[in-house]
Amino acid sequence: MILTSAEHKRITKALDEAKKLFPKSKEGLWKVYEEVYAPYSHWLDAIKPYFGK
User: Fold this and answer.
1) Which pLDDT band, with edges at 50, 70 and 90, does 2 fall under?
2) In the Cβ-directed half-sphere of 2, how many Cα atoms lie within 13 Å?
């Protein structure tokens, strides 16, 4: 999916902020993605295999 520069910056900022809330682990990183990408569930489905889920 192609994002605008503004969309990319917004998502990157949200990921950076969410990373502060969860433990530094594979499970914690997945929680970060679940939080930030909740409005884009199809993106979560696409990256889920990389987390062994």
Assistant:
1) confident
2) 0
- The answer to whether 35 touches 18, Cβ cutoff 8 Å, is yes
**pLDDT tens per residue, range 7-35:** 999 999 999 998 888 888 888 989 999 99
Cα atoms in the 13 Å half-sphere on the side-chain side of 36? 23
Helices and strands in the chain: count of H runs, count of E runs: 3, 0
Residue 37 near residue 46, CB atoms below 8 Å: no
Query: Is-contact 33 47, C-beta < 8 A?
Result: yes
What pTM was computed for the model?
A: 0.72
In the chain, the amino acid numbered 46 is: A
